[in-house]
From TrEMBL:
Stated name of the protein: Sel1 repeat-containing protein
Gene Ontology biological process terms in this record: ERAD pathway
TM segment ranges: none
């Protein structure tokens, strides 16, 4: 029987000191009150609240002082340094949005070492497009395989697409198309069954 992929997100949620408090964060409308609430959770040892605080500073509304990218980056880094695998995905994306591809590669590589499939998918994408690294399809394919093995469905689709596009024979090309089709079916089913699943993150 195939071993079920372990959800890194579930593992990290289970370590949170106050899950109810973490969920409550999204429902607090007042910006100042939300900031105080998140900081209180951080002080109590909530690693995922570090990510919430980073996101808060990155997207803070103009009427509340506007974005504070220095603080956002600092909190993304603290979350990564805390040992969180999930944080590597969020922090890596922060650098992608800044078009700092070398830093994104560095952070996604940490996520790869921690076995977080969504970060591995993004790292593979960098190798496909040559962003922050030299283009390397073999390395990208290896990374997509690793992420797919960890249950990521987009990695399965990307692996199939690469197999088809780099195929040296009609048979291998057809195999790639079948892989893409099967991954597409799995993606649609997963979106219906569990739209926020870690398996759909990329």
């Amino acid at each position: 029987m195939k071993k079920k992929a372990i959800s890194q997100e579930r593992l990290e949620w289970d370590l949170e000191p106050d899950e109810e408090g973490l969920v409550k964060t999204a429902s607090i409308a007042d910006s100042n009150e939300r900031e105080r609430h998140i900081k209180d959770l951080v002080a109590r040892g909530s690693i995922l609240s570090m990510l919430n605080l980073a996101h808060f500073y990155e997207y803070r509304r103009a009427k509340n002082g506007g974005p504070d990218l220095v603080s956002a980056e600092a909190w993304y880094q603290k979350a990564v340094e805390s040992g969180s695998a999930v944080a590597t995905f969020n922090a890596g994306y922060f650098y992608l949005r800044r078009k700092n591809y070398e830093k994104a590669r560095e952070i996604f590589s940490v996520g790869m070492d921690r076995g977080y499939a969504p970060a591995i998918v993004r790292l593979a994408d960098l190798y496909v497009h040559g962003l922050g690294v030299e283009k390397d399809y073999d390395r990208a394919k290896e990374l997509y395989k690793r992420a797919a093995k960890n249950g990521n469905l987009w990695a399965k689709a990307a692996l199939g697409a690469m197999t088809a596009s780099l195929a040296s024979s009609v048979w291998v090309r057809c195999k790639g198309y079948v892989m893409v089709a099967l991954a597409g079916i799995q993606i649609r089913f997963q979106k219906w069954r569990e739209p926020l699943s870690e398996r759909l993150k990329k």
